[in-house]
Design goal:
Layout: H1 7-24, H2 28-48, H3 54-76, H4 83-90, H5 98-121, H6 131-143, H7 145-155, H8 160-168, H9 178-195, H10 201-219, H11 224-235, H12 241-249
Length: about 250
């Protein structure tokens, strides 16, 4: 796949990954579907002119997406990838719940890639000038969280057990949320931007290490209750990726 240069090209390449995952029954398609859904929403807002700087926001979104697309292709080619992406990809054949597979991708992409992409696009620019649009993306993503939860419940019939556990105890699935992740990513973006491209390697490695630790918690939560519930939830899920994605897509 050649590098995407527009958000529509990103969506086209995500469709290829999803189709390949369906054909090979690979759970790599689960995160790819969720990412496609959110990317399509961003494209819709760009086309409506919802951002202060639509051209810059699209550039940022494409650079961000290419980090995932590149990592996916490098993994397929058995080339080196970041620790957090390697963990997510390598666990695609593990008997984790659908939610865990999705979160492993979200964790690597938001906690690692977003900071790298933002600092790269804003190099030689004032990073605070993109803050308003960065936050608007947050608002857009949060607006479809309920929709995504509803879609996931179609393919994970007893996912509600996690809500029950969260309401009835102090146990938490993972110290991870999209809101926290994107806030931390903004902080890391400022760190990398301040260092400049030539001085970022050590900090990127450190961010990757912290992200990997979160990935390990997603795959194997410290809470025994949550770990047990996730195993039970996965037992009631369909292992046919094509059928799962078809249900996720259905309107």
């Amino acid at each position: 796949m050649r590098r995407a240069t527009t958000i529509q090209e990103v969506i086209n390449q995500l469709d290829i990954i999803i189709d390949n995952a369906v054909e090979s029954n690979s759970r790599l398609g689960l995160f790819a579907y969720v990412y496609r859904r959110t990317t399509a929403e961003i494209l819709k807002e760009v086309q409506k002119g919802s951002f202060e700087n639509n051209e810059l926001l699209e550039q940022l979104d494409v650079v961000f997406a290419n980090l995932y697309l590149d990592a996916y292709q490098q993994y397929q080619n058995k080339e080196p990838v970041s620790k957090s992406w390697l963990f997510a990809f390598a666990h695609s054949d593990k008997s984790l719940s659908i939610l865990q597979h999705v979160m492993l991708g979200m964790n690597a992409h938001i906690n690692l890639d977003l900071a790298i992409a933002t600092s790269k696009v804003m190099a030689e620019k004032e990073i605070q000038s993109v803050r308003s649009d960065f936050d608007k993306v947050n608002t857009i993503l949060f607006s479809i969280v309920n929709e995504m939860q509803e879609r996931l419940s179609r393919v994970s019939p007893i996912l509600f057990l996690l809500d029950w556990a969260g309401k009835n105890s102090d146990e938490k699935i993972i110290d991870f949320s999209m809101r926290k992740a994107r806030q931390q990513s903004w902080n890391n973006s400022n760190l990398l931007w301040g260092l400049g491209p030539e001085n970022q390697v050590g900090s990127i490695d450190l961010i990757d290490k912290v992200t990997l630790e979160l990935s390990e918690m997603i795959a194997a939560p410290k809470s025994r209750i949550i770990g047990f519930l996730l195993k039970v939830i996965s037992k009631f899920e369909n292992n046919n990726v094509g059928q799962v994605i078809s249900k996720l897509k259905a309107d």
